[in-house]
C-alpha cells in the first residue's frame, strides 16, 4: 500500500508540475496576440474568478480525499459513496449559484476595478463586464470536477486527477490561443471579443477535464462497486455530519488558496484610481498588466516547487505534534523552513538579477517590466513562507489563526496600497504586498513559536548561511551577466535565452559547490543526496 501511495503521490505531483509549466509558457504567445491592454483586460476578469473558484473549491479535493480515505480504512465504503452522490448535486448547485452571482454582479465588479473617474477609451466598464461574464461559466463545472478528483484520490487513485489536470490545462490553452488568434487576427474582431473567448476557455478546459474523469469513472466503476459488497455497514452517518467534517477539513485551505487572489484584487480595485490621482491615468492599464499579470506569472515560478517540497513534510509535523514528540517536531520544523529557504532564495536572487532577459523572453524588452520584476521577485519568498506557515498551523491544530493573519495582511495591504502607489507608482503596490504578507507571516510565526514551543535560533543561523551562499552566487551570476551583456544584447529573445541559460548554469554551479562543500545539502536532503552522489560516482 505504501508503494502504491508513493507512486500515486509522484503521479499527482508530476501532473501538477506539468499543469503549472503549461500555465506559465502559454503567456508568451498570448501576450504576442493581445499585448498589454489584452492581458490587463484578461486579468481584470481572472482575479475575481480566482477568488470565486477558491471559495467554491479550495480544499475540496483534499477534504473529500481525506474523508473517503478515512472511512475506506474502516471498511465503511458506503459512507464515501454517500458523500459522492450527494456531493455531486451540492457542488453542481453551488457552481450554478456562484456562476449566477458572478454573472449578475459583473457590472459592479467591473466598476470597482475601473471606476468612472479612471474610465478611458482603452478599457471601459462594459469591456470588463463582458470578460467577467465570459469566465463566470467555468464556475458551473469546476466544483463538480474538484469533487470527482477528490473521490478518486480518496481511493488512492491519483492518475485520474493528474491526467485531468494536464488535459484541462492543454484544452484551455489551445482554446485561449486559438480562439484569441482567430477572433483578433483572422476575423479582425475586437480585443474585447478575443479576450472574452480566452477567458471562456476556462469553461472549455473544465469540460475537457470532466470528460476525462467521466471516462475513468466508467472504466473503474465495477471495481468501485465491488468495494460496496465488502462494506461493514456498522456506521450510519448523516449528511449533516458528513458535510460538517468536510468543511472542517477544507476551511483552512480556502483561506490559503484565496490569499494571493485577494491581494491581487486589492490592486485591481485601487491601482487605476491611485495612478490617476497622480496624473498617470494614461499609464495605468499597461502598468497594471505588468504588475498583476506579466511579472506575477514569473514571480510565482520559484514559489511552486519550493512550497510543494516543503509541504510534503507537514504530515510528519502533524504526527510529531499529536504524539507530543517535541524533539522530532523541532527537527521537522527546522527542515521545513531550511528546505523552503534553500530552494527559494537563490531562485529569487537569480530572477532579480536576470529580470531584463527573463521579461524579454516571456514578453518584450521593456524598462517598466524589468524594474517591477526586479522589485517583485523577492516577494516570492513571502508567498512561499505564508503558504508553509499556514500549513504548519494546520499541522499543530491552530489553523484558526490563519484567518487572523490573512485579514491582518489584507488590512495592511489595503491601508498602504494607495499612498504607496502615489509615492512610488507601480513599485508601491509591490511594497504594499510585501508589507501585508510580512505582517501575516509574523503572526503565523508567533503562533508557531507559542503553541509548538519552537525555538527559531538554530534555523535562523542556518538561514543566514543560506543567505550568504545566495549572495555569493548572486555576485557570480551578476558578474557573468554583466560580462555577457557586453557581448549579447538582452533586448532580443534569442540573446536573452542564451544569457539566462549560461548565467543560470553558472550560478547553480556556484550554489551547488558551496552547498556540497559545506555539507549543507547533506544535512537538508540526507539519503536523497547520497543516492545522487553514488550515481555520479562522487565521494560521499
Taking pLDDT < 50 over at least 5 consecutive residues as the criterion, the unreliable ranges are none
What's the total count of β strands? 0
Structural class: mainly alpha
Query: Shape from CA axes?
Result: globular
Q: Strand-and-helix sequence, N→C? A: HHHHHHHHHHHHHHHHHHHHH
Report, as a whole number of angstroms, the end-to-end distance. Answer: 32 Å
Largest sheet: none
Mean of pLDDT: 87
Membrane topology: Multi-pass membrane protein
InterPro entries: PG_synth_SpoVB (IPR024923), Poly_Biosynth_Transport (IPR050833), Polysacc_synth (IPR002797)
Subcellular location: Cell membrane
GO cellular component, one term: plasma membrane
Tell me what you see in this structure:
The protein is an all-alpha fold and 540 residues long. The protein has a domain at 1-237. It contains 21 helices and no strands. Helix 10 runs parallel beside helix 14 (367-376) and helix 12 runs parallel beside helix 18 (457-487). The two termini are 32 Å apart. The mean pLDDT is 87.
SSE topology:
Layout: H1 2-25, H2 27-57, H3 60-73, H4 77-114, H5 125-136, H6 142-154, H7 159-186, H8 191-229, H9 239-277, H10 284-311, H11 314-322, H12 326-353, H13 355-362, H14 367-376, H15 379-395, H16 400-424, H17 426-451, H18 457-487, H19 493-517, H20 520-525, H21 527-536
Helix pairs in contact: 1-7, 1-10, 2-4, 2-5, 2-7, 2-8, 2-9, 2-10, 3-4, 3-6, 3-9, 4-5, 4-6, 4-9, 5-8, 6-7, 6-8, 7-8, 9-10, 9-15, 9-16, 10-12, 10-14, 10-15, 11-12, 11-15, 12-15, 12-18, 13-14, 13-19, 14-17, 15-17, 16-17, 18-19
Amino acid at each position: 500500500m505504501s508503494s502504491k501511495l508513493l507512486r500515486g503521490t509522484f503521479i499527482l505531483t508530476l501532473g501538477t508540475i506539468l499543469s503549472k509549466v503549461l500555465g506559465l509558457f502559454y503567456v508568451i504567445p498570448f501576450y504576442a496576440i493581445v499585448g498589454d491592454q489584452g492581458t490587463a483586460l484578461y486579468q481584470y476578469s481572472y482575479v475575481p474568478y480566482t477568488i470565486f473558484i477558491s471559495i467554491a473549491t479550495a480544499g475540496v479535493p483534499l477534504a473529500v480525499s481525506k474523508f473517503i480515505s478515512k472511512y475506506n480504512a474502516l471498511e465503511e465504503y458506503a459512507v464515501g459513496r454517500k458523500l459522492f452522490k450527494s456531493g455531486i448535486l451540492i457542488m453542481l448547485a453551488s457552481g450554478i449559484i456562484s456562476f449566477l452571482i458572478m454573472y449578475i454582479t459583473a457590472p459592479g465588479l467591473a466598476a470597482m476595478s475601473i471606476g468612472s473617474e479612471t474610465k478611458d477609451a482603452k478599457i471601459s466598464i462594459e469591456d470588463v463586464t463582458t470578460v467577467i461574464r465570459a469566465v463566470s461559466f467555468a464556475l458551473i463545472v469546476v466544483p463538480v470536477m474538484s469533487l470527482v478528483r477528490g473521490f478518486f484520490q480518496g481511493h488512492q487513485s491519483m492518475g485520474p486527477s493528474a491526467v485531468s489536470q494536464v488535459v484541462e490545462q492543454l484544452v484551455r490553452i489551445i482554446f485561449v490561443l486559438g480562439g484569441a488568434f482567430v477572433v483578433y487576427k483572422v476575423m479582425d474582431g475586437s480585443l474585447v471579443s478575443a479576450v472574452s473567448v480566452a477567458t471562456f476557455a476556462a469553461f472549455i478546459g473544465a469540460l475537457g477535464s470532466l470528460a476525462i474523469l467521466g471516462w475513468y469513472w466508467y472504466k473503474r466503476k465495477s471495481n468501485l462497486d465491488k468495494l460496496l459488497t465488502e462494506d461493514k455497514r456498522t456506521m450510519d452517518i448523516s449528511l449533516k455530519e458528513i458535510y460538517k467534517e468536510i468543511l472542517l477539513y477544507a476551511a483552512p485551505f480556502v483561506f490559503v488558496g484565496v490569499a494571493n487572489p485577494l491581494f491581487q484584487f486589492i490592486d485591481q480595485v485601487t491601482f487605476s484610481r491611485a495612478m490617476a490621482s497622480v496624473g498617470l491615468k494614461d499609464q495605468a492599464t499597461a502598468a497594471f498588466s505588468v504588475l498583476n499579470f506579466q511579472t506575477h506569472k514569473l514571480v510565482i515560478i520559484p514559489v511552486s516547487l519550493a512550497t510543494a517540497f516543503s509541504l510534503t513534510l507537514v504530515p510528519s509535523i502533524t504526527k510529531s505534534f499529536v504524539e507530543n514528540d517535541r524533539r522530532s517536531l523541532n527537527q521537522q520544523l527546522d527542515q521545513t523552513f531550511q528546505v523552503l529557504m534553500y530552494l527559494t532564495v537563490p531562485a529569487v536572487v537569480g530572477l532579480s538579477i536576470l529580470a531584463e532577459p527573463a521579461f524579454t523572453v516571456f514578453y518584450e524588452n521593456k524598462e517598466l517590466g524589468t524594474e517591477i520584476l526586479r522589485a517583485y521577485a523577492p516577494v516570492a519568498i513571502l508567498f512561499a513562507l505564508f503558504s508553509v506557515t499556514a500549513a504548519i498551523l494546520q499541522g499543530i491544530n491552530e489553523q484558526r489563526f490563519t484567518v487572523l493573519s490573512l485579514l491582518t495582511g489584507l488590512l495592511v495591504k489595503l491601508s498602504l496600497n494607495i499612498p504607496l502607489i502615489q509615492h512610488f507608482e507601480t513599485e508601491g503596490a509591490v511594497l504594499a504586498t510585501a508589507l501585508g504578507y510580512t505582517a501575516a507571516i509574523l503572526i503565523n510565526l508567533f503562533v508557531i513559536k507559542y503553541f509548538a514551543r519552537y525555538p527559531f535560533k538554530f534555523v535562523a543561523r542556518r538561514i543566514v548561511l543560506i543567505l550568504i551562499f545566495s549572495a555569493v552566487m548572486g555576485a557570480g551570476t551578476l558578474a557573468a551577466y554583466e560580462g555577457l551583456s557586453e557581448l549579447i544584447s538582452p533586448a532580443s529573445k534569442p540573446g536573452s535565452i542564451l544569457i539566462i541559460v549560461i548565467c543560470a548554469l553558472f550560478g547553480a554551479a556556484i550554489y551547488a559547490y558551496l552547498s556540497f562543500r559545506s555539507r549543507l545539502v547533506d544535512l537538508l536532503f540526507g539519503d536523497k543526496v547520497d543516492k545522487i552522489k553514488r550515481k555520479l560516482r562522487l565521494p560521499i
